[in-house]
């Protein structure tokens, strides 16, 4: 067994690998860039080596710097995690030449499967069902349009060396094919140093289902069931689960056997994933093989009880697999939600900044038999950088059956506290309560179809509003009791607290009467049943669990002006608890209108301006490209919303921009 492993990665996956290495008694070495000097993986490892500036192309993906760190640390093995150099055959070969073990598959398999064009040819030869497409390299946008027309729209434009949704575009016409080709090339070159592009048919109403495979260096190969990864935005996964609610046993077995056949065809060992597109008739087509550990591997671990990182280490050390195919049993159901540093209210654009509050729910088995798992690479007070992927944690839940696992995830999301950055927790919560998700009616177009105008939060129903009104009343009266106790201690005089109120939130105005009981508060609605509320909430609390008529809910609370900001299950409301007279006066107050920005192009996310496409005085048409901004390995093209004339251009290429900073102004 190895004595010291260097993890050639960062963030939550580096922390994840360190945990298993520590369990096995193996020393660990972290590598870090300037931006990650105080990162969690650096603190967790036994030793840490600095490898360069913040941009990944000057640090994490520079093979020479990783090799220097290996030599300096004396590591005898390297785990690449995912992304960066994890699927770089040159890196694996360089380690082999240096006499250092690569904890992953053989270089020949990485090279064969890492090239999406070659991999499809090998898959077809191995009897694996493949998607129709053009497997040759494409030189320019004109050729891309010609090929797309021949295949038939819609098509998927993809980076040959791609992964994680980078360098990938869907085109429905010639214009989108032309623009998508160039954007895919740019992202591919930036993310992988390889701008080769290919095109294949885009399967409509598809599910993204993948098979986990595992093999050793002695010819043993098996599959560990499937993962459903259909909830995606920008072709990158957001929510995964295992098993899939769609597959039957026969389809699962057929997909698993084809995945193993492909792995055997390239002499594969270690952990790997064969991804398929599955249509509504359960016809499946090979998409690609990821020759590495997947982001979503925890859900497989939860339903199989197999530590995939441990198996990768043992296989790399030459050990045979400790189980056969018949030993693999799928137990229960697991859900994974990816917590991203991105703002769902701004079309999921990246967000950066300091985590002023970061309190994940407690890991482990709950009294109800469910399990909560957190894979994270950040901590409260840490910085979310613009240089890397926006994912900061993975929240997983397990239960004996799917609906219970979903309910457990909803509760865990309610208890997850994140402040200081934009994040997608409200969206994740909304999906857990969405009827289509709960029914398992999924496709990769789920987000686009269910939120066509973007995510704007969950609107409270009348029932939700009453629950939140009861919580707001409880919080307000607890706060007033605290004020009374302070004033009473100072002047021996205690004022009386009102019992009749009007709670306003969202579009609701709810008259209530509150009755303080021994250990609870009764909130009596004038036009409906009363709700009994108990909680350990105290002034200054950011989160608490409230028992409302016997139902336990986790609500995030904050004071906002004269009201209370309440967040629960994707809802984000400002609740005011006022006396009847104050509520009457509040209705007369004028609402402050937001400033008019209709003649401005504002930066939608923190990032670097990579191109300005127009100049002052230029006339632009609706849909015309104005500028391009890049952050967290994502390129975002900004277009004109309508016909206009450019009055002035403030930004220049290479400039770092903050959210809502002015790029240009129109007449």
Summarize the structure in words.
By secondary structure, this protein is α+β, with helices and mostly antiparallel strands. It has 6 domains: 100 residues, Rossmann fold (3-Layer(aba) Sandwich); 138 residues, D-amino Acid Aminotransferase, Chain A, domain 1; 70 residues, 2-Layer Sandwich (Dna Ligase, domain 1); 126 residues, D-amino Acid Aminotransferase, Chain A, domain 1 (2-Layer Sandwich), CATH 3.30.470; 125 residues, 2-Layer Sandwich (Glycoprotein, Type 4 Pilin), CATH 3.30.700.30; 67 residues, OB fold (Dihydrolipoamide Acetyltransferase, E2P), CATH 2.40.50.100. The strands form 9 sheets. It has a 9-stranded antiparallel beta sheet with strand order 14-13-10-11-12-15-23-21-20, with helices on both faces. An 8-stranded antiparallel β-barrel has the order 25-26-27-28-29-30-31-32. Helix 4 runs antiparallel to helix 5. The N and C termini lie far apart (69 Å).
Give the secondary structure arrangement, pairings included.
Layout: E1 4-7, H1 11-23, E2 27-33, H2 40-44, E3 47-52, H3 63-73, E4 77-79, H4 89-97, E5 101-102, H5 107-114, H6 116-125, E6 133-134, H7 141-151, E7 155-163, E8 166-171, H8 174-192, E9 197-201, E10 207-215, E11 221-233, E12 236-242, H9 249-265, E13 270-278, E14 284-290, H10 297-304, H11 308-316, E15 333-340, E16 342-343, E17 349-350, E18 353-354, E19 357-359, E20 364-365, E21 371-376, E22 383-384, E23 391-399, H12 402-414, E24 417-419, H13 425-432, H14 435-438, H15 446-450, H16 462-491, E25 500-505, E26 508-516, E27 521-525, E28 531-535, E29 543-548, E30 551-560, E31 563-568, E32 571-578, H17 580-586, E33 600-602, E34 607-612, E35 619-620, E36 625-631, E37 634-639, E38 644-649, E39 656-657, E40 662-666
Helix pairs in contact: 4-5, 7-8, 12-13
């Amino acid at each position: 067994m190895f004595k010291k492993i260097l993890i050639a990665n960062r963030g939550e996956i580096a922390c994840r690998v360190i945990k298993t290495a520590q369990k096995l008694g193996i020393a660990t070495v972290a590598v870090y860039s300037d931006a990650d000097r105080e990162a969690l993986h650096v603190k967790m490892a036994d030793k840490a080596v600095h490898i360069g500036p913040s941009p990944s192309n000057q640090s994490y993906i520079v093979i020479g710097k990783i090799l220097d760190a290996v030599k300096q640390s004396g590591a005898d093995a390297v785990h690449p995690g995912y992304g960066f150099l994890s699927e770089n055959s040159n890196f694996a070969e360089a380690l082999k030449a240096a006499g250092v073990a690569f904890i992953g598959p053989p270089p020949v398999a990485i090279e064969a499967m890492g090239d999406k064009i070659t991999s499809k040819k090998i898959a077809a030869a191995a009897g694996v069902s493949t998607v129709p497409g053009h497997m040759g390299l494409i030189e320019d946008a004109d050729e891309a349009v010609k090929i797309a027309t021949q295949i038939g729209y819609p098509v998927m434009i993809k980076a040959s060396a791609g992964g994680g949704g980078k360098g990938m575009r869907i085109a429905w016409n010639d214009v989108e094919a032309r623009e998508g080709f160039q954007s895919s090339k740019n992202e591919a070159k930036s993310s992988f140093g390889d701008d080769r592009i290919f095109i294949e048919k885009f399967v409509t109403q598809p599910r993204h289902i993948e098979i986990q495979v595992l093999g050793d260096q002695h010819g043993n190969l098996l599959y560990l069931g499937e993962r459903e990864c259909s909830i995606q935005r920008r072709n990158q996964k957001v929510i995964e689960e295992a098993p899939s609610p769609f597959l039957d046993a026969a389809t699962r077995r057929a997909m698993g056997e084809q995945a193993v056949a492909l792995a055997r065809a390239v002499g594969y060992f270690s952990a790997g994933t064969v991804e398929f597109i599955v249509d509504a008739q359960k016809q499946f087509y090979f998409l690609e093989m990821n020759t590495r550990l997947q982001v979503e591997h925890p859900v497989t671990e939860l339903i199989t009880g197999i530590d995939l990182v441990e198996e990768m280490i043992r296989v790399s050390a030459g050990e045979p697999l400790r189980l056969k195919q018949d030993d693999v049993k799928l137990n229960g159901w697991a859900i994974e939600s990816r917590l991203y540093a991105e703002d769902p209210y701004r079309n999921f654009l990246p967000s950066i900044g300091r985590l002023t509050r970061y309190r994940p729910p407690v890991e482990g088995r709950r009294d109800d038999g469910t399990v909560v798992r957190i894979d994270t690479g950040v901590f409260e007070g840490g910085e979310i950088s613009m240089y890397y992927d926006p994912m900061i944690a993975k929240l997983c839940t397990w239960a004996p059956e799917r609906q219970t696992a979903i309910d457990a995830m909803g509760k865990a999301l309610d208890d997850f506290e994140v402040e200081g950055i934009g994040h997608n927790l409200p969206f994740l919560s909304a999906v857990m309560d969405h009827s289509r998700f709960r029914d398992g009616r999924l496709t990769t177009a789920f987000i686009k179809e269910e939120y066509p105008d973007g995510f704007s939060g969950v609107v409270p129903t009348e029932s939700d509003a009453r629950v939140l009104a009861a919580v707001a009343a409880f919080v307000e009266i607890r706060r007033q009791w605290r004020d009374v106790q302070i004033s009473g201690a100072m002047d021996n005089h205690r004022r009386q607290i009102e019992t009749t109120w009007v709670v306003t939130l969202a579009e609701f105005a709810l008259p209530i009467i509150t009755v303080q009981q021994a250990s609870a508060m009764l909130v009596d609605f004038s036009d409906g049943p009363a709700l009994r509320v108990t909680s350990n909430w105290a002034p200054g609390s950011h989160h608490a669990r409230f028992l409302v008529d016997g139902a336990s809910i986790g609500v995030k609370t904050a004071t906002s002006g004269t009201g209370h900001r309440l967040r629960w299950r994707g809802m984000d409301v400002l609740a005011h608890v006022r006396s009847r007279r104050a509520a009457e006066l509040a209705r007369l107050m004028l609402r402050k209108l937001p400033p008019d920005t209709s003649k401005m192009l504002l930066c939608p996310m923190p990032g670097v301006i990579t191109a300005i496409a127009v100049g002052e005085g230029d006339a632009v048409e609706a849909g015309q490209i104005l500028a391009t901004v890049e952050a967290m390995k994502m390129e975002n093209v900004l277009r004109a919303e309508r016909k206009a004339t450019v009055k002035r251009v403030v930004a220049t290429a290479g400039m770092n921009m903050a959210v809502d900073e002015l790029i240009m102004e129109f007449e």
